Amino acid sequence: MPDRIRIIIADDHPIFRGGLRQIISADKTIEIIGEADNGEKALELIQELKPDIAVLDIDMPKKTGLDVLRALENSKTKIIFLTMYAEEDIFDEAMDLGIKGYVLKDSAVSDIIECILSVNEDNYYISPNVSNLLVNRRNKSKNLIKKNPELGSLTKTERNILKYISENKTSKEIAEVLFLSHRTVENHRTNISNKLNLRGSHSLLKFAIENKSYLS
After folding, report:
1. DSSP states along 150-201
2. Domains annotated on the chain, with CATH
3. Is residue 102 predicted with pLDDT exceeding 80?
4. What pTM does this model have?
């Protein structure tokens, strides 16, 4: 039998968590190796057990799902969010932070297994009933390029650096992540500013942060 998909689930509502456990456990390709009723415990379990996938409620005590995700910057665990609300700002932030799945609790019964299997294959899965959020996000990204056609002239490295700038990383931090010298990153920042016609010491940072959700 092939290795099962190792997951943890975290939700502060025991009845919902129990129902989720029952649905997931019925699939013999998936193994639940831990459960948590708050974000702090969920983070501890992910760091200790290193599951393939963590299914997290966004709105949990002690640490929210977003807090947990921010603390897992270099983790290989793929994250699926569960939520009661289809809020665009939360969806965009979750996507910015690197989630692989986004499921509304109302549709978890029908969606969660397909989501886990899809995410395990390194694909994204968004519940069909919130697909409009993904469409809106893509449209805003297209509009950003229309308003700033110069973005198309950026190299892949420059786009990566711009994305890291939007996360408020310093040139030193970006250099470490991309295995570049500090001077090379500074040169790239200058080139990006020139291509985007940005002037002033903070204009590049301001542009990156304002458009963070739509930079690919």
Report:
1. GGGG--HHHHHHHHHHHTT--HHHHHHHHT--HHHHHHHHHHHHHHTT--ST
2. 5-135 (3.40.50.2300), 148-214 (1.10.10.10)
3. yes
4. 0.63
